[in-house]
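Trying the structure run again after the queue cleared.
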Amino acid sequence: MISHPPAISNYLLKHNVRLRFIMAAASSTAITYANLLDCILVATGATAGSDVFHRVRIRGVEMWGIAALGTSSSVSCQFVGAASGFFGDGKFHTDTSMGIEPAHIMARPDPNSLADLFQNSSTQIAFTVEGIAGTVIDVLLSYQQLNNINVSASNALVGATAGTLYWRGLDGVAISTTNFVPPSNLETI
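Done. Tokens:
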């Protein structure tokens, strides 16, 4: 017989999600943990916003890129971050398209590497991606939201409406300048 209501062990808000982005131009870009957290934010004013989630863990990065027929192009991802005793897995995940089928990779960080553990917003590099214009990038993330913590978005918003939920590119910059465009049916800023 239980003499009182059972204990509640966790009030954290958690969200596992697959976010999709399209590369607007060819690039090799380092993505930080702040960038990953800035993908989903809420406006607190016309130029300020706060991240909805406060911690992020990378479950995987999946990429597809196709070259023009008769040419070749590659897509790649590498978990390179390092912080006092923890490191990225250092593996270079890559595939090349010859213009007939898309290059495709599914990169997952090694267990207990830096990218596999929950991280707070920081300028620490989570991973690097490289691809051509039109490359599709899916990022598989686990988010956590902690009680009574407010993490400001890294970059200013422009013309936002306070209280509105917005989406940003994978690089965390305004939608007008991002190279990693989220789906067009989302409320972006």
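The mean pLDDT is 92. Worth checking whether this holds up in the mutant runs.
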